[in-house]
Amino acid sequence: MEKIKISKGFTTPLAGMPDIGIIELSDPRTLGLSAMDVPHIRAKLMVKEGDRVQTGAPLFYDKRDKSVQYVSPGTGVIQKIVYGERRRLHEVVISLEGAEDFVEFDPISLSALGEVSRQVLVERLKQGGMWQALRQFPAMDTADASHTPSMIIVSLSGNDPFSPDPGVVFEREQTALHFGLEVLKRLSDRIVVTVREGSLERLGKVKSSVTHTVPDIYPAWNPGAVLYHLKKDSAENSSWCIAADHLVMMARFLMTGRYPTQKIITVTRGREHRPHILTRQGAPVKALIGDFIDRSLITTGRFNGRIVEPDDHLGFFENTLNLIDTPDGEELLGFIRPGKAKATVSKTFLSCLFPEPKEVDCTRHGEVRACINCSYCEKICPNDLMPNFIMKALLSDEIENALECGLLDCCQCGLCSYACPSKIELAQILRHGMDALYKDKQ
Ligand code: SF4
Ligand code: SF4
């Protein structure tokens, strides 16, 4: 097992660490298949309101590759199809029926896996709604099946500081994880399995699958940060990655021939220690968050998730919900308060002297200002980028300069936006720049 040394990132302890206990929620009344957490997709609907669908039946496909299907996480009737801005598909909502009725595929055993061709495996995963779990760097688009990646990075730790604990998630999934890794070996010669050092202790037998550990600094376990610190040549820039819980789902799907419907998630808030939740894929946000105050912001990642409404459903890639409170109005004379409880990157507040976990809220404490060249964004970036220079190059349409400064190495962790005292949405500007460039090349 190798150690990857990443020293930059967010180190302040945050309040809201979930308890490692687990509770199981009963089936909700509706499930949703969101298209909002799938980057670059051009969704084409295959169903209409009132249609009855089985679990695993395709609901929409990607127009760019019709064989990549997105399937129903439950059995029932299409209750509504929700569109967002410019009629972009937001989500398909299924009203659940009592008994589960699955689309069935032939199961594949571990001993038979070696006899199944790569092409058959890929087609099965595409038909079964599982291929989308594999993402390709740098734009994190769906993996291109015609390409053999130099490496596939599997992250056992999720996207967020408080993503489900790998010890809790994989304790009962050793066989599926092993099967999944065998599937990946059919797709690439190099499989890198990473986990946070702090999670190693609870991993049990799964520990033997880990190839690399990363420090407990957010976002050291992000596959984009891992790739940046491992890659040695440009061919590795288009490697793939997959979250280990998706790898387990992929394995379960192939082993049973049925779409896997459950997932473990965390819901975090301030100083609460909520247990992990075993729920359905696509569960309604409202049923997961419990009590909340109206002015809370609900995000699917503390620094880089999307903002969701209580009526939305959890996306395929999302396994954590953060309830971030928004205080009423502005803090009077906030700039001269000692800030004993405030999280601080710049060590402006007295809180930097106290080790206890800090709460974050979503007030901006001031207006957006011009860049003051303070370099906080550079000092926190895990991939040694200078987000301020990339941002300025993008805003002046100097794409070549942005690329030279490493635009394509941005792993979208969101830390630069968080650290910027001028409130500049650096991560968003970089994301838009990367997306525009990627779209142009397609
Ligand atoms: S530029 Fe910002 S979002 Fe990108 S990796 Fe660096 S800190 Fe994260
Ligand atoms: S943190 Fe913000 S203000 Fe400071 S250099 Fe970066 S972009 Fe400029």
From TrEMBL:
Q: Name one GO biological process term.
A: sodium ion transport
Q: Which reaction does it catalyse?
A: a ubiquinone + n Na(+)(in) + NADH + H(+) = a ubiquinol + n Na(+)(out) + NAD(+)
UniProt keyword annotations, A-Z: Ion transport, Iron, Iron-sulfur, Metal-binding, NAD, Oxidoreductase, Sodium, Sodium transport, Translocase, Transport, Ubiquinone
Instruction: Give the enzyme's EC designation.
Output: 7.2.1.1
Spell out the molecular function terms from Gene Ontology. iron-sulfur cluster binding; metal ion binding; oxidoreductase activity, acting on NAD(P)H, quinone or similar compound as acceptor
Entry-linked Pfam families: NQRA_2nd, NQRA_N
Per UniProt, residues of the NqrA N-terminal barrel-sandwich hybrid domain are: 4-96
InterPro entries in UniProt: 4Fe4S_Fe_S_CS, NqrA, NQRA_2nd, NQRA_N
Keyword match Kinase: no
Top-rank lineage group of the source organism: Bacteria
Please state every residue range assigned to the domain named NqrA second alpha/beta.
117-258
Q: Tell me which family the UniProt entry assigns to this protein.
A: Belongs to the NqrA family.
Q: Which PANTHER family match?
A: NA(+)-TRANSLOCATING NADH-QUINONE REDUCTASE SUBUNIT A
Q: How does it assemble?
A: Composed of six subunits; NqrA, NqrB, NqrC, NqrD, NqrE and NqrF.
Q: Which HAMAP family match?
A: NqrA
Annotated function: NQR complex catalyzes the reduction of ubiquinone-1 to ubiquinol by two successive reactions, coupled with the transport of Na(+) ions from the cytoplasm to the periplasm. NqrA to NqrE are probably involved in the second step, the conversion of ubisemiquinone to ubiquinol.
Q: What is this protein called?
A: Na(+)-translocating NADH-quinone reductase subunit A
